[in-house]
Amino acid sequence: MGVALISFGQVYQKAADAPVYSQSVNEMSTTPATIKGGGDVFWSETFDWEDPADPRGWSYPEGWTVTDGKDLGNVFVWMGDTVPGTYGRTAPPTFFATKDDGFLALPMDYYNTRDGVVTAVGMDATITTPKIDCSDKSSVVIRFSQYFRLCCGDYNLQMRVTIDGGIRWATYDVRFDVGGNTVTPERFRHVEINISDVAAGSSDVQVQFYAFGENNRYYFWILDDLNLSEAYSYDLVLEDTWMEWDGGFDAVNGHINIWPKTQMGMAGSVSGTVGQYWFEGALLNNGMEDQEDAKLVVDVTKNGELIHTEESEARTIWALERDTFWGINPYLADDYGDYKFTYKAVSDFEDEVPGNNQEVHGFTVTDTLFQRADLTVESSSNTGGWVGGGNAGDMVGVSYDVYTATEVKSITAYIAGYTAAENPQFQFVLMKDIEGVYEEWLTTDVYDCDSTNLRWVTKEIFQDGESEFIEPGEYAACVRMWGELEGDADGTNGMSIGWDITTKPANTLMYQASGDNAGSWFSTGKLNHIGINIRESGAPTEAPVTFNVNMTNHIESGEFVPSTDFVDVAGSFNDFNGSAHMEDADGDGIYTITVDACPVGQVIEFKYRINGNWDTAEFPDGGANRTYTVRYYNVLNHTYNNGNTSGIEKDSLVASFNVYPNPTSGEFTVNVVSTTPSDLEITLVDIQGHVVYRNVVKNVNDHTETIDNQLAKGMYFLTINNGLEVKVQKVMVQ
Questions:
Q1: What is the residue-averaged pLDDT of the chain?
Q2: 475 touches 433 (CB < 8 A)
Q3: Do strands 406-418 and 495-500 pair parallel, antiparallel, or not at all (unpaired)?
Q4: What is each CA distance from 279 to 256, 276, 309, 719, in whole angstroms?
Q5: pLDDT at position 32
């Protein structure tokens, strides 16, 4: 095909976000968390404000006050169920410890579209507690749980504290620099702030939550489980961490998760060694005593074995102060393998809240793959979340520096979903930076997006014997998307690409093909799952996988007797029809076995079985297999049948499954209530068997979401699969 040499303007602008319909099922997937311990709680509020006597069904307790700076009634309100909104309905997340008795919400998405009237009013609302007596407290720590999503600019979420009736306020930013269209990352969902310097010894403490910003018009901020407690004496917090890849340009280059060995270890073009990692951590002394000899320690493990430790210099951090620490020396992972970098905040004192002292990051050295994102897809996006985006021909991409000449083989991306009614198509594109302008260098075929092109997809690039052999420089791996809607001259995207929320974003790109921004590139801050594969070799092709399965529930129920029964694992890899008996050497109910020579990079499917019998295997009645992509280091931890035993009635696992309205004009809401937390796969199929919508939510009891995929008229089948049973309802679109 030859080098295309189609030119596009270089990245020079930051994209402005725009509201999009929310697939909140992905965004709210989370393992339930517990707020870490603290001193004695002396004041708390779970927002159990239901009041049948009030016409609204709830009421503010005495002493609570709300304001709306716009005087339009856009205030914080109590909600006991789903937060409404034109761009998506949001159920209280599972990590709210007391979500069942209600929570506070500022539903701006609803306020700006209520009664069918679209407005553009920015957030300007407060809610303030009654006065709280802290006069006999020498220290005060405030904790609360939050979940937010914001749009479209000028974001401000604050917690404020006053002791003089609001004449003066101590202000704390609780948005934590989270950008637009991004749901709250896990690390910011449970907030803990030591306010002793303001509140200790005062009898008139009031706490206020304040959301404002003229352009901050959509989505929501919801709050729950607010409490005040006394502080610990010694509580050193690892407040934030950074992994900085040395790109050899006299500047670090953010966190990269997977990188080829041939593309690092050389001297940088300006300074440093390409591929070295620099470690940085922000430490906060959240206790009431000074922390002496505080430092950042980073342990490096390779394939599970500790191989290196790096330490910063030690300093004293005064009470309620913070400091930033760099490691003394950078580290180069110079061999194939799965590496873990464990950051720890340590001092001379035994920490009383050890749960907030550590954070782990991963890095894999391979032979073929450039991948900034990790392999876990928390959400998805396309260009529809940005002003001027969402049109046919738009691209999302991730840029990569190539340091040694190599041959490009293919591009890999995670396709998270699509809308069949828009006839979506996609193409993988490799762009090259030539004198500050991105030029289209290599492409794949154009593919229809359907159920066969979901999850991780790898497509070979066109090869002409010349252009696939690339020289050092800056490249961008992109996904170009097309879709169509009747009456839409610019077309649509029709599909979405996986989005890594947990890795700090860097080198993220968007290209807009039409409209006012036609031909423009933007940086987005959304790290999409797109990587480049090169034609190299040398890395191990096989690795052992250790399987651990917890059998304690089945032992207690009598369904598994250790003295007479055995458990094994069987699946679809290497003609694997059943392992040897798994062993429980220490008698703790967790059985283990290591299977050698599993192919690296291959997805394996498997189940655990009792007595080698498929009839007693996990997830009976055809439930889904477990899946795992084999890496260099593999230790899997599971609970047999997700902890469910035959003592739980099968029909009770999904207590209710409702769809409304039905029939529908195209938009409808799904509510699923389960008796035990489980993963749900939600699939909508048309009468011809085409998958028009699919989503997965992790570990939920009560889940609600709204589906609006601009469906054509006709009959559809909505399926709920929790791995143990399948429920189906017909949906009629009129």
A1: 88
A2: yes
A3: antiparallel
A4: 13, 10, 11, 46
A5: 33
Secondary structure class of 466 (helix, strand, coil): coil
The SS3 call for residue 615 is helix
Euclidean distance between CA atoms 676 and 663, whole angstroms = 30
**What is the per-residue pLDDT across 602-641, written as a single tens digit (0 to 9) for each?**
888 899 999 998 887 888 766 678 888 899 999 999 999 8
For the chain, give every residue range classified as CATH 2.60.120.260: 39-229
Q: Which of 530, 483, 478 is nearest to 503 (CA)?
A: 530
Every domain of the chain with CATH number 2.60.40.10 lies at: 236-370, 542-643
Handedness of CA 371, 374, 376, 378 (dihedral sign): negative
Pick 201 or 655 by higher pLDDT.
201
The whole-number pLDDT of residue 23 equals 46
Tokens of 299: 């342990």
Q: With contact defined as beta carbons under 8 Å apart, do 268 and 247 qualify? A: yes
Q: Out of 12-16, 32-36, 217-221, 420-424, pick the least confident.
A: 32-36
Strands 635-639 and 542-550: parallel
Q: What is the reported pLDDT for 698?
A: 76
Q: Where are the alpha helices (DSSP H) in 15-127?
A: 24-27, 108-111
Chain segment 51-80, per-residue pLDDT in tens: 999 999 999 999 999 999 999 999 999 999
Q: Which is nearest to 219 in space by CA: 374, 416, 380, 19? A: 19
Q: Which of 162, 221, 223 is nearest to 191 (CA)?
A: 223
Place of tokens 């009654």: 130
Total Cβ atoms within 10 A of residue 278: 17
pLDDT tens figures, 447-484:
999 988 888 999 999 999 999 999 999 999 999 999 99
Q: What is the fold, at CATH topology level, of the domain defined by 6-16+378-534?
A: Jelly Rolls (2.60.120)
**Amino acid in position 373:** A
Can you read off the two tokens belonging to residue 703?
């889940």
How far is residue 351's CA from residue 693's CA, in Å, rounded to a whole number? 48
- Fold (CATH) for 39-229: Jelly Rolls (2.60.120)
Helix and strand element counts for the chain (H, E) = 4, 48
* CATH class name, domain 236-370: mainly beta
Amino acid in position 607:
K
CA dihedral 528, 532, 533, 538 (to 10 degrees): -90
CATH ID of 542-643, from 3.30.420.40, 2.60.40.10, 3.30.470.20, 3.40.50.12780: 2.60.40.10
For 659-714, how does the pLDDT look when each residue is reduced to its tens digit (9 = 90+)?
A: 777 777 777 878 887 767 777 888 887 665 666 777 777 777 778 777 876 676 77
Instruction: Find the mean pLDDT for residues 485-512.
Output: 90
CATH of span 653-733: 2.60.40.3080
Q: With contact defined as beta carbons under 8 Å apart, do 731 and 692 qualify?
A: no
Amino acid making up residue 88: G
Provide the token pair at 18.
């725009």
Q: Which tokens is 350 given? A: 């035994």
Closest to 78 (Cα-Cα) out of 224, 226, 210? 224
Highest mean pLDDT among 88-97, 501-510, 719-728: 501-510
- CB atoms under 10 Å from CB of 573, counted, come to 18
CA atoms within 13 A on the CB side of 548: 11
Place of tokens 């793959």: 369
137 Cβ neighbours under 8 A, 6+ residues apart: 42, 199, 200, 201, 230
Q: Are 327 and 311 in contact (CB under 8 A)?
A: yes
* Dist CA 126 CA 193 (whole Å): 19
**CATH 2.60.40.3080 placement within the chain:** 653-733
